[in-house]
Amino acid sequence: MRAIPAAGKGRGGGIRRRAALEVRRDWQLWALLMPALAFFIVFCYFPMYGVQIAFRDYKAAFGITGSKWVGLKYFIKFFSSYYCGRMFANTFLLNLFGLIFGFPVPILLAIMLNQLNRKRFRGFAQTAIYVPHFISTVVLAGMIYLFFSPTNGIVNHLITAAGGRSIYFIMEPGWFRPLFIGSEIWQNAGWNTILYIATLTSIDPQLYEAATIDGATRWEKIRHIDIPHLIPIAVMMLILNCGSLLSSNTDKALLLQTSGNMATSDILGVYVYSVGIAATKAQYSYASAIGLCLNVINFAIILLVNAISRRMSDISLF
After folding, report:
1. Residues 102, 15 within the same domain
2. Of 97, 117, 120, 242, which is most buried, counting CB atoms within 10 Å of its CB?
3. Domain containing residue 242: CATH number
4. What is the pLDDT of residue 2?
């Protein structure tokens, strides 16, 4: 008797044949894709091999696999540390307030730029708001120290000229978040308008012409044409930004941190730097455990926000 082929064998062979046919048909597109695919494999997926450092007592002399396996030792150590709760709260609140106050600004800027009729002035305005993005973090921190200095800062000069008392902004815990978030908005809001401006420029001009014929005002055009086109991309950007609620600009936080504002500037990124990279500590396994924990939590937040968005508005990343 002739053997009967397995049920899934024919189906799998059909899938492979179709895949091979598609590759032969669109080989030019696959050739263009290969460099990007190779980049992500080499620089994003191969390094995942090092994730096991978080579960080992890593010693550079023994390598990753030669180091002793300790399991969840460093995760337990982190969650049982005295300042763990404060660092989680500081990081989350810093990013949450930054998202609340900073996320709408690029959308508003894009709408205002789109309403400018004079192309030359609009181009100048776009260039002007893009420039702060190219200022390095070190220079920006120096500008903050200079402008908010209690003796020579222009801000304190204005306060004292108005009859107030000079404020040592950098040393006050209550001023760390406003300075951090405000400078972040000033530096990146203009650059973040690029995506929204591209969305607005792709709108069919006939919609505006029809609205003008119907007697729509500028505000009505914004409300019924611009905003509906911006909502999908804005929701997707919001989902992505929610995935960074436990990640911050560590460089700027480290530069702005002082002994006076430690109560609010002590965030997770700075702690990971101090225990993992600082030459006096170099606790690589401990820092890797914290980083892995934060990435897992951020990924879970993305999944949660994406599910909520999909249920409420039918807009989601996946």
Report:
1. no
2. 242
3. 1.10.3720.10
4. 46
Tokens representing 30?
């696959």
Residues 33 and 78 reside in one and the same domain: no
Per DSSP, what are the bridge partners of residue 57?
68
Q: What is the pLDDT of residues 174-229, one digit of tens each?
A: 999 999 999 999 999 999 999 999 999 999 989 998 999 988 888 999 999 999 99
pLDDT, position 278:
67
Give the residue carrying structure tokens 């607005």.
Answer: 200
163, two tokens: 């009859």
Mean pLDDT for all residues in the chain: 89
Query: Biggest alpha carbon distance in the chain?
Result: 103
Count how many domains the chain has: 2
Q: Which of 118, 141, 78 is nearest to 286 (CA)?
A: 78
- Supply angle C-alpha 227, 196, 113, rounded to 5: 85
d(CA 144, CA 166): 15
The tokens of 230 are what?
């911006």
- How many CB atoms neighbour CB 176 within 10 A? 26
Extract the residue ranges of the chain whose pLDDT is less than 50.
1-8
Per-residue exposure over 262-298, b if at least 16 CB sit within 10 Å of its own CB, e if not: eebbbbbbbbbbebbeeeeeebbbbbbbbbbbbeebb
Q: Would you say 153 and 73 are in contact if contact means Cβ atoms under 8 Å apart?
A: no
**For residue 30, what are the domain limits?**
1-39
- Encoded amino acid at 267, one letter: I
